[in-house]
Amino acid sequence: MKTLIPVTIVTGFLGSGKTTLLRSLIERRQTRRLALLINEFGEVAIDGALIRETAGTQAHIQIVDFPYGLIAYGDDALFIPTMQAIAARRFDVDHVLIETSGLALPTAVMEMLQSAELADDFILDATLAIVDTPLLLSNQFDVDGTDDTLETVANSVAALFERQLEYADVVVLNKIDGLDDAALLLAETALRQRAPNIRFLELAYDAKLDIRLALGLRLHQPTKIEHAHSYTLLPSMPCPQAGVLDNQSRLNGHAHSGLSGHSHGLRTHQHFHEQDPGWLSFVLRCDAAQHEAAFKAAMLAVSIAEPVLRSKGFICLADAAGTLLVQGVRTRLQLHAATEPGARTRSELVFIGYHLKRQQVAAKLSELTGTLWQ
Ligand SMILES: Nc1nc2c(ncn2[C@@H]2O[C@H](COP(=O)(O)OP(=O)(O)OP(=O)(O)O)[C@@H](O)[C@H]2O)c(=O)[nH]1
């Protein structure tokens, strides 16, 4: 019998730190040969470019971009052939990592892994949900109690966030640098209130996760019933080397607690977002050079005025001063010197939001930077 190739799904809301965490896993992969499938909601593959930057020319790391749409959802014709191609090169792959879009549920991939085309080659290792802990603590994932429809940003975000938690085996509290023990305990409580069935909780400082707690967890086993495949959860974390985190005491002994029966019930729901067309993404481009301070102030103003939940891309600075990588999560904006190969001549930004209006964002950004964005 063929050995099944383990697959880890990395899910989490927009900007929670999935790509950053994957980059740190690549750095710590030791001898593991990895295949990575990177799905972004926006049409420009920024995350794939960043992961390639980390992987460099390392052998035994394959990266496949899935820009546009949602990986393994109904209209994705790429997922099964890509996985089959990986299976055909199984001698060169120890583990597959799939980063889903921040607007996707992991269930679409989970379901596909159980399909007749893939179930004989792959096994779900675990689903990790990455959480932006400061956003969680600032109640940004709360339901808007004044409106019980999905037609508000808050309710749409809350619904998606809770479903991502619901289907995760391991929830990772990320962006916890700077948080004290009391804040971590509050975050754990807030998570458990939302998703009482969370099985394992991990901490990632600076998006770094102990690789033994991320890969090779073997939390699922295949079950074949006639011609249907399904996964059964294992009752505990069986990985022999999977010790507890060094810093587990920071959660006051609560880490790894909370095992309770939960079932993925894959066939019983629709994947979120197939029903919610309010999420939009577009790219704005600008040929004029940008001034860092003015650009930063303009982005902050745009993010406050418009429902921008995520922005990312590259800007070209004036006087050939180089390129900056732009990473915005709501109103938090980070600019870093980009180390892309090849010179860029055009700034390019992806915006993602709920009922976000392209023309309004373009007009405001153009006005505030004094350069034409379109
Ligand atoms: N301070 C801090 N910032 C982080 C951490 N992890 C990620 N970030 C920052 O958060 C921003 C978003 O990180 P990404 O890794 O791109 O998030 P993502 O989940 O892949 O984003 P999408 O794919 O767009 O949903 C970037 O500016 C990161 O540098 C962390 O642990 N601490």
UniProtKB/TrEMBL annotation:
InterPro entries: CobW-likC_sf, CobW-like_C, CobW/HypB/UreG_nucleotide-bd, P-loop_NTPase, Zinc-reg_GTPase_activator. One of its GO terms (molecular function) is hydrolase activity. Keywords: Chaperone, Hydrolase, Nucleotide-binding. Residues 279-369 form the CobW C-terminal domain. It comes from the Bacteria. It catalyses: GTP + H2O = GDP + phosphate + H(+). Belongs to the SIMIBI class G3E GTPase family. ZNG1 subfamily. This is Cobalamin biosynthesis protein P47K. It comes from Massilia psychrophila.
